[in-house]
């Protein structure tokens, strides 16, 4: 099974998990980056006028820098991101809208400083139409991600 790990990381936590799992899973890696990078002020969820709040509550698409060549080759896609308001950040949703998910197994892994996984899989499903499986789990490190993916 050909695997891709595509991740968005606001402060490096999700990046560490994604990069730590690549070799164990024999996966390719793609960083989901917004065309306009986030500043610390943009990520201040306590400020109702911060960029992350305006994007989430305004349901705005966030343009993604770069694309994946030959996305069709992947059978399984691991989508990594920090939990924002009980779901994926808008930049991840925008990323998902750019590809054909037909028949792909989607395993979303989230990192969080305190939030649970909630209904992340359910909320992500409309952005990956045609996926054969959509599952989500909160992970704290690469080992937990690898164990989940390999069913250990």
Can you offer a commentary on this structure?
The protein has 152 residues and is an alpha/beta fold. It has 5 helices and 7 strands. A 5-stranded parallel sheet has the order 2-1-5-6-7. Strands 3-4 form a two-stranded antiparallel ribbon. Helix 3 links the parallel strand 5 and strand 6. It is globular and about 45 Å long. The two termini are 17 Å apart. The mean pLDDT is 90.
Quick structural overview:
This protein has 152 residues and is of the alpha/beta class. Helix content is 28%, strand content 22%.
The chain-level structural class is alpha/beta
Strand order of the largest sheet: 2-1-5-6-7
- What is the ordering of alpha helices and beta strands? EHEEHEEHEHEH
Radius of gyration: 14 Å
Total DSSP E strands: 7
Secondary structure: helix percent: 25-40%
Present the secondary structure layout.
Layout: E1 3-7, H1 13-25, E2 28-31, E3 33-34, H2 51-57, E4 64-65, E5 76-82, H3 90-97, E6 105-111, H4 120-124, E7 133-138, H5 142-150
Parallel strand pairs: 1-2, 1-5, 5-6, 6-7
Antiparallel strand pairs: 3-4
Helix pairs in contact: 1-5
Key traits:
5-stranded parallel sheet; 152 residues; alpha/beta
């Amino acid at each position: 099974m050909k695997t891709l790990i595509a991740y968005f990381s606001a402060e490096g936590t999700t990046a560490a998990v994604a990069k730590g799992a690549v070799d164990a899973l024999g996966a390719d890696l793609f960083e989901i980056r917004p065309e306009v990078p986030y500043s610390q002020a943009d990520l201040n969820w306590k400020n109702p006028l911060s960029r992350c709040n305006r994007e989430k509550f305004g349901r705005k698409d966030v343009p993604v820098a770069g694309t994946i060549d030959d996305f069709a080759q992947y059978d399984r896609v691991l989508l990594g991101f920090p939990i924002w308001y009980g779901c994926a950040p808008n930049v991840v949703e925008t990323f998902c809208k750019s590809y054909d998910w037909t028949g792909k197994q989607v395993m979303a892994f989230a990192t969080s400083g305190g939030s649970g996984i909630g209904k992340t899989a359910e909320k992500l499903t409309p952005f990956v139409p045609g996926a054969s499986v959509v599952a989500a789990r909160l992970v704290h490190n690469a080992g937990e991600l690898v164990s989940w993916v390999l069913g250990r």
